[in-house]
Design a protein that fits this description.
This protein is an alpha/beta fold. It is built from 4 helices and 5 strands, in the order βαββαβαβα.
Length: about 170
């Protein structure tokens, strides 16, 4: 049975998708456009030359630069920021730390300082994978395994701690 698209009861006025040209991010942009055609959608990504949609405002920028993030937030004044950034596999711990930990912190703090009403941050199921048990029906209260399986997962786990300590568990 085909499902009908329903309009949201709450209008979304403006949304910034950070990492909106990447694998997950461009799907988020597409869904926002489909279900909220009235919404002003913008994208901040390191390079915005792929996975583009008409009617979207794109900004090339570096999330590890507070100035870069602040500039986009000032221009767009989004009510909601959705952070979908995820560096590709094989880049090494230094770049993962710079993007996953420092970049997440910068985006979070800049969004808070700009008066963003909601900040949605995407993690990875790998953060909760202990190498033995399937990751099923877990949420942000699930314990994070002591030993990460790889540098990407280790830095995503550090970001989870940052996000949860600042906003959920305080």
């Amino acid at each position: 049975m085909a499902s009908e698209k329903t309009k949201s009861a709450v209008p979304l006025n403006s949304v910034l998708v950070i990492g909106g040209c990447g694998f997950l991010g461009h799907h988020v942009v597409k869904i926002l456009q489909e279900y909220h055609p009235e919404t002003n959608i913008s994208v901040l990504d390191l390079r915005t030359n792929v996975n583009r949609f008409p009617g979207i405002t794109y900004y090339d920028g570096d999330i590890t630069s507070r100035t870069s993030v602040d500039n986009v937030l000032e221009k767009e004044k989004p009510e909601i920021v959705i952070d979908t950034v995820s560096p590709v596999h094989g880049l090494g711990k230094e770049i993962y730390f710079k993007v996953n930990v420092e970049g997440s912190r910068i985006c979070l703090e800049a969004s808070r300082d700009a008066g963003v009403k909601a900040f949605v941050w995407t993690s990875s199921a790998s953060v909760l994978f202990d190498g033995e048990h399937d990751v099923v029906n877990l949420n942000e209260k699930a314990p994070i395994p002591q030993k990460a399986l790889d540098p990407y997962t280790e830095t995503k786990a550090s970001s989870v701690d940052l996000i949860l300590l600042q906003f959920i568990r305080r």
